[in-house]
Formyl-CoA transferase (Lapillicoccus jejuensis), 411 residues
Amino acid sequence: MSTPYGAPHAGPFDVQRPLAGLRVLELGNFIAAPTAGRLLADFGAEVIKIERPGTGDELRNWRLFAGDTSMLYRTVNRGKLSVELDLKTEEGQRTVLDLVHVCDALVENFRPGTLDRWGLDAATLTASNPELVVARVSAFGQTGPLSQRPGFAAVAEAYGGMRDLVGDPDRPPARVGVSIGDSIAGLYAAFGVVMSLLDRERRRAAGAAAVGPDARAVDVALHEAVFSMMESLVPDWSAHEVLRTRSGGRMQGIAPSNAYPCADDLWVIIAGNADSIFRRLMTAIGRRDLAEDESLARNAARWDRRDELDEAIAAWTRTLPRDEALDVLDDAGVPAGPILTAADIADDEHYRVRGMVQEVPVDVAGEVRDVAFPGVVPLLGPTSLPVGHPGPDLGEHTDDVLTRILGRPRG
């Protein structure tokens, strides 16, 4: 795209890496903004990650089982360049502004006002690069009465309506096993960057006036990212005064769809909730009486009798090992699948064929090993793009970035 303001980066167009030529500066810790950076890097953008000297991104120590850099960090920050800079110093701030001058976009997830205190406010960034796209991720957004509150994904998932729906109705609200709120926000931030840059390029091509930095800014609030995934949660309340509640392994209002135990102590997920699929499912499990019951022809009635249907399905799955049950359901055209562990996924043929599990050499506590990483989503073609290098060592690319991009003497 541009560096600075319109001179294209060197390199041909790449249909496999359509963001090649983009340069993105990442000022982010933990998961949200770094997820945006990872997605942009996956598809070819040069992402320069700024990390504090000595300690770097705190994610390096999250779920750290050996060595000094976790696989969580290696995963979320793959394909990036790591540069050590102290943003609290004048030298660090000048260097960031020099990088801003030659970047297309900046993504950050500091608490609102933090960059302003470090002399990296919106006006200063704009002065360094009037066409810079800035994506900001925060707990509650850059405006509004809660904008100054800190918050991680756990808080956002609660405020966005998700936590109230996760778990069993007779137990406290639960959490999914990943920082899903952060990841969703990162997806939105990456989409916002690409959308704003596309608008910029289309305006250039048409000879139209560029929009101002305020209109081009991308403001992602964690809780809003979560709320956007809550389907008709609020419309159901607004229109019908219906409050959804926790329903365990079921989805409220949809039946039958649940996890069912098999004879080998493994579990299957069966989604027999569409009208025609329900009839095929009941026939496959030997309950033609339920398949032909006209009162069960529509989902609403099936939800009212969900306990009865779940008991009928579980009575059948308990008689068969998991794989045999899945074969029967597959033959009947019923959506079903196993509940896979990490070990299952790493060895799964379907994941491998589509390139969704890729082995990459990584230094694990001083020993270089081939480590399985998730592939690149979405696919562009029949299989995943190759995964870039895993998240870098702290400051691994400081000299390269400062000399190659900024033309400074090698330190």
User: Anything to note?
Assistant: The chain has 18 helices and eleven strands.
